[in-house]
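Q: How do we represent a protein-ligand complex in a form that can be generated token by token?
A: Start from the inputs.
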Amino acid sequence: MSNKKSIKSSSSAERGSLPSFLVSELRSRLLNWYAKSGRTLPWRKTRDPYAIWVSEIMLQQTQVKTVIPYFERWMQQFPTIKALAKADLQSVLKAWEGLGYYARARNLHRAAQQIEGDFPTDLEGVLKLPGIGRTTAGGILSAAFNQPISILDGNVKRVLARLIALETCPSKALKQLWAISDHLIDPNAGRDFNQALMDLGATVCTLKNPACLVCPWRSHCKAYNLGVQSELPMSETRAAIPHKVIGVAVIWQDQRILIDRRKPEGLLGGLWEFPGGKLEPGETIEDCIKREIREELAIDIEVGERLIVVDHTYTHFRVTLNVHHCQYRSGEPQAIACDEIRWVTVDELSDYPFPKANIKIIEALRQ
Ligand code: SF4
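Then emit the structure tokens for the protein with iron/sulfur cluster bound:
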């Protein structure tokens, strides 16, 4: 017989708050589990706040297995805050190439230039740095200095929402979830507690099929006891994201291709790309490419055959890039809607940082 009960059948008091007497039990169970089952990760071998900060930023929106090689290369290339502060933005973006959400790299660079001396050790000082919110600050200060400062990333929200069988979606209960995270953190073991909570969310209390049978919190978990762990947390209602169709030009002249650098701020700021723009209603891709290139670079081109179609999804929209080979015809290229333009060979493309969708274009060119 199923042990599944309706969430509504337990009282709000039972589900909405965490009784104090449970807190030390939950702490010790989690820390014991972590001592046996915690992951070995490169940034856990160090107490250097800079290295931990880099890892925390890379781990935002990105999986651990993707981050590890980037983190290791980054620490070789920019081993200290000073080294990062002195580097030029282009080499910073190149080191980040493929990780996405490039504002993270720009903010790291800017923050490194802002830090005078050592990395700050107080919450207020850390929160002043660009790109660092409350969870990231807690992650850094706990991991580097063992400070009992709580975190609430996506994984932690899910674990805590299940622990108390939260009746609403986590974004509507942030105050409550922060209060629980604050209440739970071990004042003497901030580092291990936060790391353990992250590991629990990443390896046991996963989005799909949580492994409750091996979970150290199982006996106190409301969602498990109600049999609703797979139905929680309640999902956020999301509007459908818009779709943009883009015409993109690979403009050739004498074995060279024209690329442009995006303006420094905004989405993909400072990265290089193949020029192009959004399809207008009633326009063909060929007409769109010709128009965009005239408007953005003040040159005329002939649009040739299609090279590749690339679909890519960003957080708030998705794009379809229709990429065509084009031949330069006339005019002096001008950087009207970008920061800089260059003619480069296919081999030279690897010297420049490009967003992921453009890397697929480069791969197609190499074939
Ligand atoms: S018992 Fe299951 S649902 Fe509850 S915290 Fe553990 S893994 Fe998550």
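The CA atoms of residues 188 and 243 lie 49 Å apart. The mean pLDDT is 92.
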